[in-house]
Each structure stands twice: as structure tokens, then as C-alpha cells.
Amino acid sequence: MLKAYILDDEPLARDELKYLLIRSEQVDILGEADCVEDAVAAIIELKPDLVFLDIELAEENGLSLARQLEPLEQTPAIVFATAYDEYALEAFDLDAVDYILKPFDEERIHKTLEKIKKMQNLGKKNNLIQSSVKQNNNGKIAVLVDERIVLLTVADIVYLESSEGKCNIVTIEQAYKVAEALVVLEKKVNNAKFLRVHRSFIVNVDHIVEIEPWFNSTYNLHMRDGSQVPVSRTYVKLLKRQLGF
Predict the structure, then answer these.
(1) How far is residue 6's CA from residue 8's CA, in Å, rounded to a whole number?
(2) Three-class SS state of 128
(3) CA distance 92 to 77
């Protein structure tokens, strides 16, 4: 059973989520709170595996709680449960496991729990504590693809792309679609050869074969596999500094 904690300042929303989690028969709810201060104290004491966080609280922001939890030795997996979809990017930048929208859908909750169980089986530190797996000594990373755990050679990765809440890992030989956020994969590869060039793209600079000037001071990168990756204006300076042009 997963041990969960809920932060939401709407009692009806908490009750609905608790009901769905109890119905799943996969979750033991350790507690709930309606403010960040109470939640932080309880989470430190109870050490849940999983925390469901609302974002828009009455006078606070659930994102602030996620930031406060990051330094903990045993950080719970975070699922943002909110009525607002505009925070999704920032949520995944905080290594959120998932992002579900109100009103809650039972099937969607089940998918979230299944995702977490798969992550647990993949070998996350202790009980879902980390959302990244350390790169091993052979320069490989483990990723969950459908029901399989696939080992990828980091040097063979051409680029990473965030798309529709998932990520594409494009290698020299083929592409893999995984459920992990781009920021999580960025930590997994943990390699100076990988450079973020766009909000949705991280490239392996060893696989860049041409840099093509594009509109409005942006660029297109021609990659070794024949694909093209856009460079947004935000990351142009970083690209130039990294490659010296």
C-alpha cells in the first residue's frame, strides 16, 4: 500500500480525492491539511510515499510546499491535483510525478497510481523518494517503456523532447516514448554534452552536424539522425557559449 498525504483547502475536493483513493484499495491515507504550514510538519513526521498537492490555496501556493520538501532526505513523490492547467510546466520542473485536473476522474487517478507503482518497480530510491535514477558506471540509464525496463547508452541519445506530458528519447537507432518529465531525464543523463536549447528540447551536442540560422535570431539544429531541433531565443546565448560561435 502506498502511504499518501493530501493538501487542499477545499474540504469537498479532499473528500472526493480520499474517496477515490480508498476505492482504489492501493492507498493508505496518512492525513490531510488545508494549509502549507500544517502539511510540512505532518509530512516530515509521517514520511508519506506520496503527496497530493493543490496549487491554488486560499493564501498560499502548493508549489511552495513542493520546494520546501526538496531538501528532505526522503522526499515523497508529488502529484499536483488542481483545477488549473497553466502550472503544469513549473510543476514538472519540481519533479512532480504527475499532474491531474479537477474534477477528479477515477480512471485518471488509477493511471497515476499505476504510474507510481511502475516507477517504484523501476528501482526508485527507497519508496518513490527520488524521481531520477543515477547513471551507472557503464554510461547507461534505465527508462520505463510500456511494460519494459530499457537500458540506453547515454552517448547514443541524440536528443530529448517533451511532448504532450511525456518525453521522446531519440537515439541513433530508434525513439522511445516515456512518461517521465524532461527535467527528470535531464538529471538522469547528467552529462555536460547535453544542452537545453528550447523549453521542450535537450540535445546531445556530439550529434549536432549543422547549425542553421533561422527567423528572429533563432536557429535550427541539424542532428546526426537527420532530424531538426529548434533553438529558442532564450537559449541562443547558452548555445553560442557552449559551442563557441
Answers:
(1) 6
(2) coil
(3) 12
pTM for this model (two decimals): 0.52
Q: How far is CA 97 from CA 100, 111, 116, 240, in A?
A: 10, 12, 7, 33
Q: Which residue has the cell 525513439?
A: 175
User: Measuring CA to CA, which residue among 195, 201, 220, 193 is closest to residue 209?
Assistant: 220
Strands 50-53 and 77-82, sheet pairing: parallel
CA distance 210 to 214: 12
CA-CA distance, 92 to 99, in Å (whole number)? Answer: 8
Torsional sign, CA 81, 187, 135, 151: positive
Give the residue among 176, 195, 190 at the shortest CA–CA distance from 135. Answer: 190
Provide the 3-class DSSP secondary structure of residue 8: coil
* pLDDT tens per residue, range 145-192: 887 778 899 999 999 999 877 899 999 999 999 888 887 788 788 788
Amino acid sitting at position 130: Q
